[in-house]
Amino acid sequence: MVMNILLFLLAVLNYVHFSTAGLNYTSIRFTLVNPDFKTVDLTDNTNATGLFEEDSEIILLIFAWTEDTTTPWIKNITEAYHRRNDRKYQIIYVDWSYEGSTFYYHEVKIIDAIGYFSGDWLIRFMEKEKVDINRIHVLTHSLGCHLAGFMAKYIKKQLNRILHRITCLDAAAPGYLESSTQKKLYRGDAKIIVAIHTDIDNYGLAEAYGDIDFYPNGGLYHQPGCNDSFLESCSHCKSHDYWVEAIFSNKFYGRECDSWENYLEGLCENNRLLNFAGNMTSITIADSGIYFTYTNAEEPFLTNCIIKYDNYYDINDNYF
Ligand SMILES: *[C@@H]1O[C@H](CO)[C@@H](O)[C@H](O)[C@H]1NC(C)=O
Ligand SMILES: *[C@@H]1O[C@H](CO)[C@@H](O)[C@H](O)[C@H]1NC(C)=O
Ligand SMILES: *[C@@H]1O[C@H](CO)[C@@H](O)[C@H](O)[C@H]1NC(C)=O
Ligand SMILES: *[C@@H]1O[C@H](CO)[C@@H](O)[C@H](O)[C@H]1NC(C)=O
Ligand SMILES: *[C@@H]1O[C@H](CO)[C@@H](O)[C@H](O)[C@H]1NC(C)=O
């Protein structure tokens, strides 16, 4: 009861604040982050910087709700990509943290506008810097995934071209369970959507909305090693912790299988293995499907995952 009253008051405060002030678009920043973490502000975007002439993979890292430049996994993933030596990576932060730190359901209402705004910036960026759309890899987590969806839909409409790849680390479920495909991230928004699911039926979407849907440990809440609570969803965050390790180690194997139940029973052991950790073009549309893996409860999460949590999972949960 007290909780409900608090939530109601928060909602009223937010409504009053934002209905009068409107969105603060100038607070949304687009920043190139170099390997030494020195930054170049690209927000203004009027003149080419000449920094993108080489054929790099450009990771557009879209923050999630309440995340900012100090969020540990944001730092880790930046370092992880810069340390790879298979090709050059350039990381651009889409920092909407000024708008992105209020009441969650308020964020759900404004995320489309922020997505369109970011899409508009990206179009101008590509034009100015002469960057081909196929070099852009959008990487994001939770609510940021839906921001990416709106951004991608906007670009499709404006340019009649689509982004090459979006990698979504556990798309947010609250506010999106009943949404149409036009109101959330969904396959078709990019040529390839890779979706990692680690917190289904809690903070993460269960449905296979990507082209390639990967469910470590069946995507289940709770992930191994997690002691989730209402305030801290460790399972939801496992999506990005796995990704950080994957990019550092260049290994994140999933095996294709029609269901988690069949995977647990060992019926898919002859199916193909896919490494999710490569560069943006190492996965193609021919790899479309549903994939599973076990992970370890502690780091390293992704190597020698031989432990079968046979009694750990409720195998009646079948979402696929
Ligand atoms: C918009 O956000 C910036 C911070 O990025 C802040 O300095 C500025 O005062 C804000 N403007 C309004 C009208 O709130
Ligand atoms: C962009 O380039 C033009 C022409 O060189 C220059 O006049 C202008 O000041 C530049 N704008 C910015 C924001 O650097
Ligand atoms: C970030 O990296 C440090 C070690 O470099 C590790 O201890 C920590 O668990 C990582 N955190 C996340 C969120 O990935
Ligand atoms: C998990 O959380 C519960 C409740 O806060 C606590 O009693 C328990 O010790 C925790 N377990 C671990 C392994 O952290
Ligand atoms: C991406 O990785 C694949 C291997 O997975 C490799 O064949 C390809 O050359 C890489 N692309 C670039 C541009 O480095």
From TrEMBL:
Keyword terms: Secreted, Signal
Record field: transmembrane: none
Location of the protein in the cell: Secreted
InterPro entries noted in UniProt: AB_hydrolase_fold (IPR029058), Lipase (IPR013818), TAG_lipase (IPR000734)
MF (Gene Ontology): lipase activity; serine hydrolase activity
SUPFAM superfamilies: alpha/beta-Hydrolases
Chief subcellular location: secreted
Cellular component terms per the entry's GO annotation: extracellular space
Domain Lipase per the UniProt entry, residue ranges: 36-270
Signal peptide: 1-21
Residue ranges that the Swiss-Prot or TrEMBL entry lists as coiled coil: none
Protein's UniProt keywords contain Secreted: yes
GO terms of biological process kind: lipid catabolic process
Family recorded in the similarity comment: Belongs to the AB hydrolase superfamily. Lipase family.
Protein name per the record: Lipase domain-containing protein
